[in-house]
Design goal:
By secondary structure, the chain is of the alpha/beta class. The protein has nine helices and seven strands; from the N terminus they run βαβαβαβαβααβαααβ.
Length: about 250
């Protein structure tokens, strides 16, 4: 990390496969790293201990990113712990796949709340601090399916397309305050969620990827790490695809 400035990063969904890789990359760059967890996450203390044993000192904050009041409470707790969030990675996301004919309102609402409402809820409670201090990075995790759509994912594709629109609009509002806002759109990555798919479905997905393999969480995390860095200061309003060539634009 250039210079002596120590930044604090918050990674939502930081205990997941991609979130953990992002948190580790930012920690390795010299940042303090906070992650979010949910009330249903198993053994948060055990996960933190395992990360510490591997050399990664994280702090975890419980939150429902789909609920604005919960995000306000989280922000208050982070401030009480004398942290200021300089780098925000909006990574939390869920899927509830079904064809539109079979998709329930509950599964539509759950995905839009966690994947898209969270953009407002989490960013809202930290963006003023960034603009006041004159420096900040907001990095939103979208998806290849937010760009191209996907059968059985009207809810997920809509939410991730919304992330891209949110990114471009907010980038214009805060650019002159020293804050950049960018999105990353990964393709299929070898996280537990993807590896738990039936093997035949996973094989069909890989067959559609020109590079012939799934992405690695560390590859996506490296891109996020660059966007969070000082040398990326001229980059804002971008949606960066990293999908093995599955969707080119």
């Amino acid at each position: 990390m250039q210079g002596s400035t120590i930044r604090t990063a918050l990674v939502t969904g930081g205990m997941g496969g991609l979130g953990q890789a992002i948190a580790r990359t930012l920690h390795a760059a010299g940042h303090r790293v906070l992650v979010t967890c949910t009330a249903t996450d198993d053994d948060v203390l055990g996960w933190l201990a395992a990360q510490a044993a591997a050399g990664f000192d994280f702090a975890a904050y419980e939150v429902d990113v789909g609920d604005f009041a919960s995000c306000q409470t989280m922000a208050q707790r982070i401030e009480a712990d004398r942290h200021q969030v300089d780098i925000l990675v909006n990574n939390a996301g869920i899927t509830r796949d079904a064809t539109f004919r079979k998709l329930s309102w509950e599964d539509w609402d759950a995905v839009l709340r966690v994947n898209l409402d969270s953009m407002f809820n989490v960013t809202k409670v930290f963006i003023d601090g960034m603009t006041t201090r004159g420096w900040g990075r907001v990095i939103n995790i979208s998806s290849v399916n937010g760009s191209k759509g996907q059968f059985g994912q009207t809810n997920y594709s809509a939410s991730k397309a919304g992330v891209q629109g949110f990114t471009r609009a907010l980038a214009q509002e805060v650019a002159r305050k020293g804050v950049t806002v960018n999105a990353v759109s990964p393709g299929y990555v070898g996280t537990q969620l993807v590896m738990d798919m039936p093997e035949d479905i996973r094989a069909r997905i890989v067959a559609e990827i020109p590079l012939g393999r799934l992405g690695r969480p560390e590859e996506i995390a490296a891109l996020v790490g660059f966007i969070a860095s000082e040398p990326a200061g001229y980059m804002t309003g971008s949606n960066v695809a990293m999908n093995g060539g599955q969707h080119m634009s």
